[in-house]
Design goal:
Elements (H helix, E strand, L loop, with lengths): L1 E5 L4 H12 L3 E6 L7 H12 L4 E5 L5 H11 L3 E4 L13 H21 L4 E7 L23 H20 L3 E6 L2 E2 L8 H11 L3 E3 L6 E2 L2 E2 H12 L23 E6 L5 E2 H12 L5 E3 L15 H7 L7 H16 L2
């Protein structure tokens, strides 16, 4: 297939592009290589993708309406995976306009491209952040998510609502994936695993928020990619059981689906740190801090719907995944 993937210099986007290219798909990749974090890491990921002859790079921003229109018109993708976004809960407190531009304006450009060019299926990144103030565990796609606690979460919830509108109005099949704390080799430098590993190796203190009481449903990159591809190949359809008198948030009478994509096994932050210390071979110096504004104390994914519909099953133990990351980090940074 010819698939448009946005965010191909990103952590998830580059890994997904490589997997799709390996199976023989043609990939049109979009990324603007912004400086939210280390550009050199993004370029290094992108070089891995560009090694494949059936990859075409387009360097532009999602909010560049004319560039996105031109990409859809020239390449006529059959399916689209939208992973490009302004990421990060904490950064949304400092630069809110970046989230509106990339995550709202950018997403409407993707939706319009899909609408006008008969795209078979749009799969897009949502986030576990949409659960916000919810405390009922595990988080289910059938739960209400109307209480976001960060602007980042609000933009991701907005994407789900926008996608439903296009599924309803234009019968565009859309599937939203709520990612739960993705980690692994080539990961993001603003994420805890990267920050902790770097500081422990360099003998610097690590910042432990919420006084170490966090729990996260850490999900290894290979398991994420497996789930994304399975949902991409499983085109969203209307639910015959959808009832407007008791509406289910995860399905619709339109071709629309929402899934959690997580490990289904929350890990305590202090154990997470202990594993990193064991893999690095060095103890950490910890600076305990309160819960940050916009953050949530725990995440835990109910993935039953994804198992039922596409036979998704994460199978990477946290110990194995962290060891793989530390091995990559040492090799990449030559430490």
């Amino acid at each position: 297939m010819r698939i448009l993937v946005t965010g191909t210099a990103g952590f998830i986007g580059s890994a997904l592009a490589i997997e799709l290219l390996e199976r023989g798909d043609e990939i049109i990749g979009i990324d603007n290589i912004n400086d939210y974090y280390d550009i050199n890491l993004k370029l290094a990921r992108l070089e891995r993708v560009k090694a494949y002859p059936n990859f075409t790079e387009i360097r532009c921003s999602l909010e560049d309406t004319s560039a996105i229109e031109a990409a859809f018109k020239q390449y006529q993708p059959q399916r689209v995976v939208n992973l490009a976004a302004q990421a990060g809960v904490r950064y949304s407190l400092q630069n809110p306009h970046a989230y509106i531009n990339a995550n709202i304006l950018g997403f409407i450009n993707i939706l319009e491209g899909c609408r006008h060019h008969q795209v078979e299926h749009l799969v897009y990144a949502s986030s576990s952040s949409v659960y916000g103030a919810n405390t009922q565990m595990p988080f289910s796609v059938h739960h209400n998510v109307d209480h976001p606690v960060s602007l980042y979460a609000a933009t991701k919830k907005s994407n789900e609502l926008m996608a439903h509108t296009y599924s309803h109005l234009y019968q565009l099949p859309t599937t939203g994936l709520r990612f739960f704390t993705v980690y692994g080799p080539w990961g993001r430098p603003d994420m805890s695993l990267f920050l902790f590993t770097r500081n422990i190796i360099e003998g610097k203190p690590i910042q432990v928020f919420n006084h170490g009481q966090h729990k996260r449903d850490f999900t290894y990159i290979d398991d994420i990619i497996n789930g994304v591809i399975r949902t991409l190949d499983h085109i969203a359809e209307p639910s015959p059981n959808w009832n407007s008198a008791a509406p289910d948030a995860a399905t619709s009478k339109a071709p629309y689906r929402l899934y959690n994509i997580g490990n289904n096994t929350p890990v305590e932050l202090m154990y997470f740190i202990e594993i990193i210390e064991n893999c690095v071979g060095k103890k950490s110096e910890k600076e305990f801090l309160p819960l940050q504004l916009g953050d949530v104390p725990a995440t835990y994914a109910d993935v039953d719907a994804l198992i039922e519909d596409v036979d998704y099953k994460p199978n990477t133990p946290i110990e194995q995944g962290i060891q793989a990351f530390v091995n990559w980090y040492r090799a990449y940074y030559k430490v």
